Amino acid sequence: QVQLVESGGGLVQAGGSLRLSCVASGSIFGINAMGWYRQAPGKQRELVATIAIGGSTNYADSVKGRFTISRDNAKNTVYLQMNSLKSEDTAVYYCNAQVLPAWGPTPGIRPYWGQGTQVTVSA
Q1: C-alpha span between 84 and 113 (Å, rounded)
Q2: Which of 10, 16, 39, 74 supports an S-S bond with 45, CB 3.0-4.6 Å?
Q3: What is the pLDDT of residue 49?
Q4: Nearest CA to 112 among 55, 32, 47?
Q5: β-pair partners for 19
Q6: Of the candidates 92, 102, 100, which has an alpha carbon nearest to the alpha carbon of residue 41?
Q7: What is residue 1's predicted lDDT score, i.e. its pLDDT?
C-alpha cells in the first residue's frame, strides 16, 4: 500500500553534485521522520541523514557540510542534495520513511524503504 521511489542517482566526477529525490505514495495517513541511508559493497548499511517533520536534521559525520537533506511535506517527498562528492560516497542510496498507514492489518508506525538508487563517484 505504501511505496517509496528514489530518483536522481547516477555517475558523477569527484567534486560534482547530485540531487536525490524520494516520493512516498499510497495509503498514507502520516509520515514522521524521513531519511537517507546508503550501502557500499561489502559494508553495512549506514545512516546518511534524517529529517523530522518539523525540519530538524541529523547527518553522519562523513557527509556533514557537504550533503543537505530537505523535505516537502505537501508532496511527501524528501531530497538529498549532495555536493563535493567523493569516491567514498559511492553506494546504493536508500530512502526511508516512518509511515503511519491509512489502513492495514495492524496499526502503528512502521518503516518503509525504497528500492535504492546507485550513486557512483569517479575518482
Answers
A1: 26
A2: 39
A3: 98
A4: 32
A5: 81
A6: 92
A7: 81
- As a whole number of angstroms, the distance between CA 24 and CA 40 comes to 24
Residues with Cβ within 8 Å of 26's Cβ and at least 6 positions away in sequence, in order, are 1, 2, 3, 101
Q: Phi and psi of 86, rounded to 5°?
A: -120, 160
Write phi, then psi, for 74 (nearest 5 degrees): -65, -25
- To the nearest whole percent, how much of the chain has pLDDT over 70? 100
Cell representation of residue 68? 543537505
Strands 117-122 and 110-113, bridge-based pairing: unpaired
**In percent, how much of the chain has pLDDT > 90?**
93
pLDDT digits (tens, 9 = 90+) for 52-68: 999 999 999 999 999 99
Residue 21 pLDDT grade (very low, low, confident, very high; cuts 50, 70, 90): very high
Query: Going by DSSP bridges, is the β-strand pair 57-59/67-72 parallel, antiparallel, or unpaired?
Result: unpaired
